[in-house]
UniProtKB/TrEMBL annotation:
Pfam families: DUF2200 (PF09966). InterPro entries: SP1917_dom_sf, UCP033199. This is DUF2200 domain-containing protein. Gene3D superfamilies: uncharacterized protein sp1917 domain (1.10.8.290).
Length: 116
């Protein structure tokens, strides 16, 4: 998928896959939402509004209240690419969330996922 197509894809279309990935490994939707809110600064109401409005990935991140100041502590590989080395800022934000969801699904403690 080209980046432009991904950027226009509604975040709400991918969200159920994030939930399924977490729940398949015994984690919860609430834990996933905590991670998303930690990363983007949305509260539960704001996140739900983004889902209900079918905001694109681009708008989801553009309208995010405030990216977490510890975002640079998210490191590692997603799809064989180091997230900290991705040059496209929007793609990097998308992959940061992918990395956090991967860590959740691998059973990592929430404190470590949230870089506390």
């Amino acid at each position: 998928m080209k980046n432009e197509n991904l950027y226009k894809l509604p975040f709400a279309n991918v969200y159920p896959y994030y939930i399924a990935k977490a729940e398949k490994k015994g984690r919860t939707k609430e834990e996933l939402d905590t991670i998303i809110c930690w990363l983007t600064g949305y509260d539960e109401k704001g996140l739900q509004q983004q889902l209900d409005s079918k905001a694109s990935f681009e708008n989801f991140y553009t309208e995010a209240p405030q990216l977490n100041p510890n975002i640079s502590k998210i490191t590692g590989l997603v799809c064989g690419i180091r997230v900290e080395e991705i040059e496209d800022p929007l793609m990097q934000k998308i992959r940061y969330l992918d990395k956090l969801v991967d860590e959740l699904a691998k059973g990592k403690a929430m404190e470590k996922i949230l870089k506390k």
